[in-house]
């Protein structure tokens, strides 16, 4: 990922937080038939490996997991996209400006291993359900439907990979004046788009406004 110095984010805790908050990732690998990409939620275990470990599962009919099996050691990248929004040049205080796009992104690289053991796959699915159901007052419990879920495990393949390198980019107008940043925050806020509002909040937090 191209990352100009002002936009580089190296703090691991910040990168992990992006992964947690925007965990619906794009997983990209290169197999025998060329590039393959899958959109899926990924879990982060920050305790396994210096940079953490990513865990997920795919449908067995999805050929993506076969790349992990048939090309062991091949590098894969998981792309996490945070808040993003178009930035109008009319929001800047200077007349000399062009349109741009502000965004937050994290790329996590590693070499996935396929997991077919049913008990291990069940643990992956159960943890995925637990993580995403935790936001609700009455969380749905997979264990209550374990017999039914067990029958479906043959249709799923799990995988995991230790993150071997990680890149982060937070393009939040750090290369512009404080006045321009404030004006962009105001412009994003006025649009009232959820992604724009989230981006404005990050800009406000970063600049201490």
What's this entry about, in short?
By secondary structure, this protein is an alpha+beta fold. It has helices spanning 12-21, 64-70, 118-133, 146-152, 178-191, 194-207, and strands spanning 24-31, 34-41, 43-45, 53-59, 76-87, 100-110, 113-115, 156-162, 165-171. It has a 5-stranded antiparallel sheet with strand order 2-1-5-6-9. A 4-stranded antiparallel sheet has the order 3-4-8-7, sandwiched between helices.
Low-pLDDT residue intervals, each spanning 5 or more residues: none
Biggest pleated-sheet summary: 5 strands, antiparallel
Measure the end-to-end span.
29 Å
The dominant shape is elongated
Whole-number total of structural domains: 1
Report on the architecture of this protein.
- The protein is of the alpha+beta class and 209 residues long.
- It has a single domain, classed as Electron Transport, Fmn-binding Protein, Chain A (Pnp Oxidase, Chain A, Roll), CATH 2.30.110.
- The strands form 2 sheets. A 5-stranded antiparallel β-sheet has the order 2-1-5-6-9. It has a 4-stranded antiparallel β-sheet with strand order 3-4-8-7, sandwiched between helices.
- A hairpin with a 7-residue loop joins strand 3 and strand 4.
- Helix 5 packs antiparallel against helix 6.
- The chain is elongated, with a radius of gyration of 20 Å.
């Amino acid at each position: 990922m191209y990352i100009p110095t002002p936009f580089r984010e190296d703090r691991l805790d910040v990168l992990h937080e992006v992964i947690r908050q925007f965990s619906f990732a794009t997983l990209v690998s290169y197999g025998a038939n060329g590039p393959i990409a899958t959109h899926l939620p990924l879990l982060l275990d920050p305790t396994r490996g210096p940079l953490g470990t990513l865990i997920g599962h795919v449908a067995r009919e999805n050929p993506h997991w076969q790349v992990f099996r048939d090309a062991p050691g091949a590098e894969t990248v998981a792309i996490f996209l945070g808040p993003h929004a178009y930035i109008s040049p009319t929001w800047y205080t200077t007349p000399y400006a062009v349109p741009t796009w502000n965004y937050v992104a994290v790329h996590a690289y590693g070499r996935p291993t396929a997991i077919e053991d049913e008990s291990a796959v069940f643990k992956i699915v159960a943890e995925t359900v637990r993580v995403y159901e935790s936001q609700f007052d009455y969380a749905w419990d997979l264990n209550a439907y374990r017999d039914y879920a067990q029958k479906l495990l043959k249709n799923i393949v799990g995988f995991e990979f230790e993150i071997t390198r990680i890149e982060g980019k937070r393009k939040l107008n750090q290369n512009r004046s404080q006045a321009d940043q404030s004006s962009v925050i105001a412009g994003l806020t006025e649009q009232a788009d959820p992604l724009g509002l989230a981006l404005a909040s990050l800009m406000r937090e970063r600049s201490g406004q």
